Amino acid sequence: MARKKLGEILIEAGVLDETKLRAALGEQQRWGGPLGRILIEMKFITEEALVKALSEQLHFPAIKLQDCEFSPAALDRIPADVCEQYTLIPFSLDGKFLDVAMADPTNLAIVDELRIRTRLNVRAYLAGPRTIERYIALHYHGREQPDDNFGHEVAMPPPVAEFGQRERSMTRKIRDPFLGLGPEAADPLRAAATAELGAAAAAASRQEVTELRARVEQLEALLARDEDVLRKLMSLLIEKGLCTRDEILEQLK
User: What distance in Å separates the CA atoms of residue 8 and residue 61, rounded to the nearest whole number?
Assistant: First the structure.
């Protein structure tokens, strides 16, 4: 029997609807990353509600990492890059049993990989993705992050489209040489400049206009390509856990 997808489980649990799921899947396709985390960031569901619904639907025990005393021996068994790749973190080692909090404990392939890597019996527990990421940052990288996301809605960062809007806005400012002047001074100057440009355009040959048009189209194509490369690069950085969307947006301000 095929394993149910996260969206189906949440819809059956009554905490998500089809419209919100489609929106989140579109965001996942654009940015990449785990669907559960995207649903939380888009404020469609709280992390607490996500964990509760999955625990009830999948019959998996949930763990509150904020109540755990993390075992250094357990943390040593799984490296940070594996934890970040699969959104999981080990928290307890009891003899031959390694307890691991996972955002998706139903993924048996990952559980088997951990079992082979550690040579221990892995007991999987369910925890929210943002909470797991917080404790990975704390225990592997020594970075403390505010514990303000568990059970609370998180503001969604601006969509990718905003980058294009911001760039077009900046382009308009650069192209307008009268931007800093008051309306009394700017309007006559702008009108005179427009008239001069109109006369020059009328005097230009059809060939020059065609070449100019081709050049503009070429520049627009290059800009679109660069935007696509930038979007994919940001998605890769976020997926690899090297930075967050908030950090990227902060640098672009």
Answer: 20
Sheet arrangement for strand 88-94: 88-94, 97-102, 121-126
- Residue 94 is inside which H or E element, if any? strand 88-94
The answer to whether residue 150 sits within a structural domain is no
* H-only helix segments in 142-182: 161-175
Q: Which range in 36-40, 167-171, 198-202 is most confidently predicted, on average pLDDT?
A: 36-40
pTM: 0.54
Instruction: Give the chain's domain count.
Output: 3
Between these two residues, 95 and 238, which has the higher pLDDT value? 95
Q: Look at residue 57 in the predicted model and tell me its pLDDT.
A: 83
Asked if residue 112 and residue 69 are part of one domain, the reply reads yes
Percentages helix, strand, coil for the chain, rounded to the nearest 5? 60, 10, 30
The helix or strand, by DSSP H or E, that contains position 42, with its residue range, turns out to be none
* Three-class secondary structure of residue 125 per DSSP: strand
Strand duo 88-94 + 121-126: pairing: unpaired
- Residue 121, number of CB atoms within 10 A of its CB: 12
Angle at 115 between CA 109 and CA 120, to 5 degrees: 160
DSSP state of 102: E
What's the average model confidence in pLDDT over 134-140?
95
Tell me which residue range forms the domain holding 69.
65-141
Q: Is residue 248, in this structure, part of any structural domain at all?
A: yes
DSSP class of 242: S
